[in-house]
């Protein structure tokens, strides 16, 4: 099963049993043009990482940072605070709505170990 099918299946199953799901698109939200993370990326990597519509060219940025640990750390420093903030706001929203369960389909959050101490149960599924 490829990643696209896996995400679609996860979202379908969770909508049927009414479990809230937070997925990786948190990254896309925080790098919208002129948001703080976007500004930090442009400041650190230059305007050549932008598409004509001012969005980040993720493919071009990926070629710059992956394979270069120092540049990847700069990328993470630019984006992770905003990504974590967006995740926590989403969790707060679901808490206020009275959700009993929320699935975080965020492998990087798990792999980095960030905030795992706040989670009650962690279930890791490998495909």
Describe this structure in words.
- This protein is mainly alpha-helical and 127 residues long.
- It has one domain: Rossmann fold (3-Layer(aba) Sandwich).
- It is 56% helix and 6% strand.
- The protein has a two-stranded parallel ribbon with strand order 1-2.
- α3 (36-45) runs antiparallel to α5.
- The longest helix is centred in the middle third of the chain and has 28 residues, at 69-96.
- The model has no long low-confidence stretch (mean pLDDT 78).
Task: List the topology elements.
Layout: H1 3-16, E1 20-23, H2 26-30, H3 36-45, H4 58-65, H5 69-96, E2 102-105, H6 107-112
Parallel strand pairs: 1-2
Structural class: mainly alpha
| pLDDT averaged over residues | 78
> What integer value in Å does the Rg equal?
16 Å
Going across the biggest sheet, name each strand in turn: 1-2
Number of folding domains?
1
Can you tell me the CATH topology? Rossmann fold
CATH superfamily: P-loop containing nucleotide triphosphate hydrolases
The assigned CATH architecture is 3-Layer(aba) Sandwich
- Unreliable segments of 5+ consecutive residues: none
> Topology as H/E string?
HEHHHHEH
How many runs of DSSP E, i.e. beta strands? 2
What is the overall shape?
globular
CATH class term: Alpha Beta
Q: Main beta sheet: strand number and arrangement?
A: 2 strands, parallel
What's the total helix number?
6
- What's the N-to-C terminus distance? 8 Å
Helical amount: 55-70%
Strand content: 5-15%
């Amino acid at each position: 099963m490829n990643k696209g099918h896996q995400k679609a299946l996860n979202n379908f199953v969770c909508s049927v049993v009414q479990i809230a799901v937070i997925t990786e698109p948190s990254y896309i939200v925080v790098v919208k043009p002129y948001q703080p993370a976007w500004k930090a990326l442009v400041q650190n990597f230059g305007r050549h990482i932008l598409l004509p519509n001012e969005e980040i060219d993720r493919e071009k940025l990926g070629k710059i940072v992956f394979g270069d640990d120092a540049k990847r750390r700069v990328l993470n420093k630019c984006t992770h605070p905003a990504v974590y903030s967006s995740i926590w706001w989403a969790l707060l929203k679901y808490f206020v709505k009275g959700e009993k369960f929320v699935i975080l389909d965020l492998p990087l959050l798990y792999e980095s170990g960030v905030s795992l101490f706040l989670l009650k149960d962690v279930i890791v599924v490998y495909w």
